[in-house]
Design brief:
Rhopdopsin 7-helix transmembrane proteins; binds zinc ion; Heptahelical transmembrane protein 4-like; three-stranded mixed sheet; about 350 residues; 10 helices; about 55% helix; mainly alpha
């Protein structure tokens, strides 16, 4: 039975359904998006439509081991739902909703940035010069390769999308959890490695020995990390610290070319301003990792931040902010090389 609810002070496009307050139905009501109202006018949160599956949100203690990651988030978990319902849950409210959307929106932001950059720096020009697929240095009268810049944008988008898929699908089964986590790790590695390319390629375009040294080293590092993360043992608690150290070392190794850049080109405005962007990027990533590791604020008030405000959501936002800072730095590197050549 449907009723108009315009007279209700707190109504927000609410649909009224005929329902009962039995515990079975209450539990089934945790699936769909829109708040619904029962005849008495009481607003039910996390309401659900009857489905063939047992698609209810559960508490932490009801989870299988492979879904137990944060004991300070107590409720609103999806657990081993059918694939279709798992995919559709992108539009419903649960404790992963904001984790999914923070990186999905980040992905679209980078898609727009890529389009914007392509209007500033077309990928082809009617200028003589080297192949854009070469590691050889460009000079001012030749075409400056764009691929390192676009490689970074592609790496950032891959990372954001794989993270989004991981948060959406990992609850479906232990297999999807294992698979999407591998993509998530690969995405982090690819973001870190691809971040080096515009920095190193453009800053050291005229110092090919260092340019190639840095690029080959970080690429090898990244491939090793991705291969290591494919091993099941990498996922075990015993290797959790090793995993974090590996990613942290890979990211921290970016300090070497940045310091080298300042030593070699510290008198140039582009080098200084881009370093400021890189420092802000480092702060975003650093604070994000600390918040993620400390699991605050949910540690202080378990259960209060299940839906919104838990550490992983802050971590995601800071990752997007850090990646955007590196985008600004990369634009500057490309402009610098475009203007000056070697
Ligand atoms: Zn995440």
């Amino acid at each position: 039975m449907c009723l108009e609810v315009a007279t209700m002070a707190s109504s927000v496009c609410l649909e009224i359904i005929s329902t009962s307050s039995s515990s079975t139905e209450e539990s089934e009501m945790q699936f769909l998006i829109s708040p619904r109202v029962i005849e008495s006018g009481k607003i039910e949160k996390n309401t659900a439509k009857k489905t063939n599956c047992n698609c209810e949100l559960v508490d932490y203690d009801s989870l299988p081991e492979f879904l137990k990651h944060n004991e300070f988030i107590l409720n609103h978990y999806r657990s081993e739902w059918p694939l279709k319902q798992t995919i559709l849950s992108i539009f419903s409210i649960h404790n992963e909703t904001l984790n999914i959307w923070t990186h999905l929106i980040g992905f679209f932001i980078f898609l727009i940035l890529t389009y914007h950059a392509s209007t500033l720096f077309p990928t082809s020009q009617n200028r003589s010069g080297n192949s854009s697929n070469s590691l050889s240095a460009s000079t001012s009268d030749t075409f400056v390769s764009r691929w390192p810049f676009y490689l970074y944008l592609a790496g950032a988008m891959f990372c954001l999308l794989s993270s989004c898929a991981c948060h959406l699908l990992s609850c479906h089964s232990s297999f999807t959890c294992y698979l999407t986590l591998r993509f998530d790790y690969a995405g982090i590695s690819i973001l870190i490695v691809s971040s080096f390319y515009p920095l190193v390629y453009y800053c050291f375009a005229c110092l090919p020995f260092y340019r190639n040294l840095y690029l080959y080293t970080i690429t090898l590092f990244g491939i090793t990390t991705i291969v290591a993360s494919l091993l099941p043992v990498f996922e075990t608690a015993k290797f959790r610290a090793a995993r974090a150290v590996l990613f942290a070392c890979m990211a921290a190794s970016g300090l070497v070319p940045i310091v080298h850049k300042m030593v070699a080109f510290g008198d140039k405005k582009e080098a200084v301003v881009s370093t400021v962007y890189e420092v802000v990027m480092g702060l975003c990533y650093g604070v994000g990792v600390v918040v993620y590791g400390a699991r605050v604020p949910e540690r202080w008030m378990p259960g209060k931040f299940d839906i919104a405000g838990h550490s992983h959501q802050f971590f995601h936002v800071l990752v997007v902010a850090g990646a955007y800072m590196h985008y600004l730095a990369s634009l500057m590197y490309l402009q610098w090389r475009e203007t000056e050549g070697c």
